[in-house]
Amino acid sequence: MEQGELQKYILDQAKTEVDHTRSWPPKILAFYVTIHFGIVGAHLALTGRTPPINAPFCAKLFITLFVVGLFLWAALVLGKNHLSYLRHRNIQIHFQIENLKKYKDTLPKNWFIINEISLFVRKGWWFYLYLMFLVTILTMGGVWFVR
């Protein structure tokens, strides 16, 4: 494989991975919210009956531990996904630095800035983390306080 073909292949793979990592957060959030909807829906269905079927304390505790564990797992997946996005985006930036030098003045400056690989860079993924936290709090409130 000659140098130009190799660069094109690497750039195509990096683009595929960047697109893949950009599409994951909404999918994770949808999966996460669906599970919580099922938990709260089942709880409301049981407590809304006549006579109501109240969940015992140990069941509520188990649900709480499950929900917290699910939150930690999903947050870990989102964090790893974000770091993967930054790594693959940096491959694209290195290519842009090498091949677009003559256009540097006409292109946006951030096209040539290498990203630090950190959870505190490009914080857009924190929005998904916030939504997951909000859903977790609402689910726990529904499980513990709805009678």
Summed up:
The protein is built from three helices and no strands.
Give the helices and strands, then pairings.
Blueprint: H1 3-47, H2 57-99, H3 125-145
Please describe what this structure looks like:
Helix content is 74%, strand content 0%. By secondary structure, it is mostly helical. It has one domain. Helix 1 runs parallel beside helix 3 (125-145). It is elongated and about 75 Å long. The chain starts with a helix and ends with a helix. The model has no long low-confidence stretch (mean pLDDT 92).
| Global morphology | elongated
Number of helices: 3
Radius of gyration: 22 Å
Largest β-sheet summary: none
Mean pLDDT: 92
SS class? mainly alpha
Number of domains as seen in the coordinates: 1
Head-to-tail CA distance between termini: 67 Å
Strand residue percentage: under 5%
Q: What is the percent of helical residues?
A: over 70%
List how many beta strands DSSP finds.
0
Spell the H/E element sequence: HHH
Low-confidence stretches: none
What brief labels describe this structure?
147 residues, mainly alpha, 3 helices, 74% helix
